[in-house]
Amino acid sequence: MDYDITLIAGHREALLARTLESFTRDVFPNFNIRRLIANIDRFMGDEAEGDRCEAMIRSHFPDALIFRPETPDFASAVMRVWAATTAPRVLHLEDDWIALEPFGPERIEPLFEPDVGAVTFMCVNKHTRGLYHQTSRRVVKKGRRIVEDTLVNAFSTSPGVFEGDFLREAARRMKPGLDPEKQFYRQINPDLEAHALPRRCMFLRGSTHRELVQDIGRQARADVGLVKLYENGASVWRKADPAPEG
Q1: Are 129 and 206 spatial neighbours (Cβ–Cβ below 8 Å)?
Q2: What is the C-alpha separation between 235 and 58, in angstroms, rounded?
Q3: 3-state secondary structure of 75
Q4: Pairwise CA distance, residues 192 & 241, whole Å
Q5: With contact defined as beta carbons under 8 Å apart, do 134 and 125 qualify?
Q6: Model pLDDT for residues 181-195, shown as the tens digit of each residue
Q7: Structural domains present in the chain
Q8: What are residue 234's DSSP bridge partners?
Q9: Phi and psi torsions of 207, nearest 5°
Q10: Residues 162, 201: contact at Cβ < 8 Å?
Q11: What is the rounded distance in angstroms from the CA atom of residue 42 to the CA atom of residue 132?
């Protein structure tokens, strides 16, 4: 089974170096990789840092397809790299994660039952609700009365593997400007939900611990005083409010 790799990155050289070092050591050698496709957005660092990020990616994947758009947009970046894939499976990755142990397709492929569109790698922030696949709670109110309180299937753009055709159709239906992950299940993109909700996203846990990957971006954002917020269907990064004196 061939895999493409999609990588979403900013101008964050130190984070990207840790991510590539970790996955090059413990993950990438275990897969039959057809091509790496990356998007480097103008986010955080300057253009020179963006150049160094591109050079770093090419030091691992000389033939990588790398997009460097003028205007940064998370959803557009995801749509762009997903649409450029061709492999039956796609390992999706962002520039601020590390693998906590080696793993390969022999642990992933058995999870791809006919109704499975993706396998997401377990991290500390995921809530399983006692299930083997990812879900989101959907509460619908009419006035003050709850008329619907159900779990719907959810998908993640944190590291994981997607079925290729499922991912490419998701890219076709995705909307720029909105959080790419939330579009799968937050009632902001009905066309994408019609495609995604009948499918499941399975959890892949670590072999000795619950977590398989670790997010290293949260602390990096905190170090520079940024917080990630969800506003009007989009994820945005803003300067954190200063702590009150005294």
Answers
A1: no
A2: 29
A3: helix
A4: 35
A5: no
A6: 999 999 999 999 999
A7: 2-237 (3.90.550.10)
A8: 231
A9: -80, -30
A10: no
A11: 36
User: What 3-state DSSP class applies to 244?
Assistant: coil
Strand ranges in the chain using DSSP code E only, listed in sequence order: 2-11, 32-44, 65-67, 89-94, 97-99, 116-121, 135-142, 145-153, 160-163, 200-204, 213-215, 226-231, 234-239
Residue 109 per-residue DSSP state: G
* Model pTM score: 0.90
- Comparing CA positions, the residue from 39, 38, 82 lying closest to residue 60 is 38
Q: How far apart are CA 238 and CA 124, in angstroms?
A: 23
Q: Tokens standing for 85?
A: 């894939």
d(CA 95, CA 84): 19
Q: How many residues does the chain have?
A: 246
Q: What digits encode the pLDDT tens for the residues 96-135? A: 999 999 999 999 999 999 999 999 999 998 999 999 999 9
Give 44's contacts (C-beta < 8 A, 6+ positions apart).
Answer: 10, 11, 12, 224
